[in-house]
Amino acid sequence: MIFSMTGYAVCARDVGRARLNLELRSVNSRFLDLSFRMAEELRLVEPVLRETINARLSRGKVECRLYWQAAAENNPDLALNAPLLQQLANAQAELRNRFPDAQPLSVSELLRWPGVLAENGPDFEALVADVAGLLENALNDLIASRAREGEKLATMLRERVSGMRTLVGQAEPILPGAIAEYQEKLTLRLREAAANLDEDRIRQEVAVFAQRADVAEEFSRLRAHLEEVEHVLKRGGPAGKRLDFLMQELNREANTLASKSVSGALSAIAVEMKLLIEQMREQVQNIE
Q1: Rounded Cα gap, residues 5 and 142, in angstroms
Q2: How would DSSP label each residue in 111-126?
Q3: Which of 29, 45, 201, 222 has its CA 20 to 30 A from that of 21?
Q4: What is the model's pTM?
Q5: Please, what is the average pLDDT of the chain?
Q6: Residues 2, 151: contact at Cβ < 8 Å?
């Protein structure tokens, strides 16, 4: 199966008095590029997330967003951070010894002090297992969406490959007649340009031209590359880099065909080939 690098998944589950939410977004990238957005108190599970995603995905820019919310029907219990309050009291006592006129901290100032007032949330060490399970579900959904998108891309590529085969089939019958016609024109021009050239020399020049204008080898390589594209699509798995290389080779042969063209019909076919190759190349950038 061919996988796209574009996908999206979101999962949530209740964990104690909180609801845990995990969101995965994936777009194309040359390598696997992970980024995480989460509250600091959830950072302890980042290694689990990173290791699991690395094991399941090979390419793509993946953004993982993890956050939790208190259940709407529950009022969180508030707790005071006693050790921190004691540290503040000690610091205040020392400062007032040095500065007797300093005003003491008010209750509102103490309650607003970072870390003094906390909510009795979930046990984050036990939360690691819940996050792992949630991530597994989200990854399954993400990979499924990437597979659906990948199948669409594979279908498009197969259609373009079929179009390329049709163009090769149209070009091959044209080539002999086009070369013969151009040889005749070249012979006339050579005779007009150099009346003192003998027939043997003219035939030699025309033969050299015919050899340079022969694109049978290019047609053969085009067919071979198209067969390889179909083989890679059939084999499935991570195929983006291989397909990208094949697009470069197809484009090389199409350019050579265009440069050797001896007729307007062959030039038009070469242009159509390059258009199909470019369409494939753009979509191949999204394949894992």
Answers
A1: 10
A2: HHSTTTEEE----HHH
A3: 29
A4: 0.69
A5: 83
A6: yes
